[in-house]
Automatic annotation (TrEMBL):
Sorted UniProt keywords: Membrane, Transmembrane, Transmembrane helix, Transport
Any one GO biological process: zinc ion transport
Cited Pfam families: Cation_efflux
Record organism: Pedobacter heparinus (strain ATCC 13125 / DSM 2366 / CIP 104194 / JCM 7457 / NBRC 12017 / NCIMB 9290 / NRRL B-14731 / HIM 762-3)
Protein name: Cation diffusion facilitator family transporter
Gene3D superfamilies membership: Cation efflux protein transmembrane domain (1.20.1510.10), Cation efflux protein, cytoplasmic domain (3.30.70.1350)
Keyword Signal: no
Domain of life per record: Bacteria
Transmembrane segments: 7-28, 74-99, 111-135, 156-179, 191-208
Cited InterPro entries: Cation_efflux (IPR002524), Cation_efflux_CTD_sf (IPR036837), Cation_efflux_TM (IPR058533), Cation_efflux_TMD_sf (IPR027469), SLC30A9 (IPR040177)
Gene Ontology terms for molecular function: monoatomic cation transmembrane transporter activity
Main location: membrane
């Protein structure tokens, strides 16, 4: 998770500086798309702060009110981030663009816009590179989409999506703003805002889907369940593992429950001893499994 925090901090620093310069450039040149890009960077800055807050909250130790800890705080704040991208990023950019299309205004000298966009592209590109590098370390050879679906740490792929959308948005704005100025069609500047907004809405839906799934309680992979069942059934006291239930409390913590059919001739003391053996073997083999509950059938 340390690598993910590094990518979050790099994105936070980049977006904070970029947001300020975009708003200044947009105000001086009367560019709708630059104002939208400023909104985008401001939302991204807020998102990184919320992710860092979620990471901090998720590390709180368990207490009497939350016996399994606060790991799901990260999933909650990741879902909040996806809503902010939709509402403050996407919706506001679309609104700003529509207003500029309906009431177009000629752009003033856009030279500062280009300077800001090029610098932003460098900063966002660097942040994206760091985020992709950190995410690649967690993929373990899996494809990008499969890695996102299977990932239990939204902070790993959320920054990648944000920075990727930012780089794509900057390229769109540069192209349409240039055409708007060259062809004297101010509506194209507003169109750039709308496209950037739609891009953010699309990204927010993907992030909301994944964060919601994690928040509701994703379990371990089928192949991992099979390995755990085989490990438990190696114990001489076990007749069969009837069912395995699991949920991720955090990216680094799994709660596991096994319903096991033990040999009929065993007494209570022998079953208790078998449960302890099975619990210790599972926790030794699978480092993320912190809680193992075993129910005799």
């Amino acid at each position: 998770m340390a690598n993910n925090q590094k990518s979050i901090y790099s994105a936070l620093a980049a977006n904070l500086l970029i947001a300020i310069t975009k708003f200044i450039a947009g105000a001086f040149t009367n560019s709708s798309s630059m104002i939208s890009e400023g909104i985008h960077s401001t939302v991204d800055t807020t998102n990184q702060l919320l992710l860092l807050y979620g990471l901090k909250r998720s590390r709180k130790p368990a207490d009497q009110y939350h016996p399994f800890g606060y790991g799901k705080e990260l999933y909650f704040w990741s879902f909040v981030v996806s809503i902010l991208i939709f509402g403050l990023g996407g919706a506001l950019s679309i609104f700003q663009g529509v207003v500029h299309i309906r009431e177009p205004e000629l752009m003033k000298d856009p030279i500062w816009n280009y300077v800001v966009l090029v610098l932003s592209l460098i900063f966002e590109g660097t942040s994206l590179f760091i985020a992709v590098k950190a995410f690649n370390k967690t993929r373990n050879g899996a494809g990008w989409w499969d890695a996102i679906i299977k990932s239990k740490d939204p902070s790993s792929f959320l920054v990648v999506f944000e920075d990727g959308a930012a780089v794509a948005g900057l390229i769109i704005v540069m192209i349409l703003m240039g055409l708007s100025h060259a062809l004297h069609i101010p509506e194209l500047d507003g169109l750039a805002s709308v496209i950037v907004g739609l891009l953010l809405v699309f990204v927010s839906f993907i992030l909301a889907r994944e964060s919601r799934s994690l928040l509701m309680g994703e379990g371990i992979a089928p192949e991992t369940r099979q390995k755990i069942a085989e490990l438990a059934e190696k114990d001489a006291a076990v007749l069969k593992v009837k069912n395995i239930l699991s949920t991720y409390q955090s990216p680094e913590e799994v709660v596991l429950m096994l319903i096991i059919d033990f040999e009929d001739h065993l007494d209570t003391e022998e079953i208790t001893g078998a449960i302890e053996r099975i619990r210790e073997n599972i926790k030794k083999e699978f480092q993320l499994v912190r809680f193992v509950l075993i129910q005799p059938e």
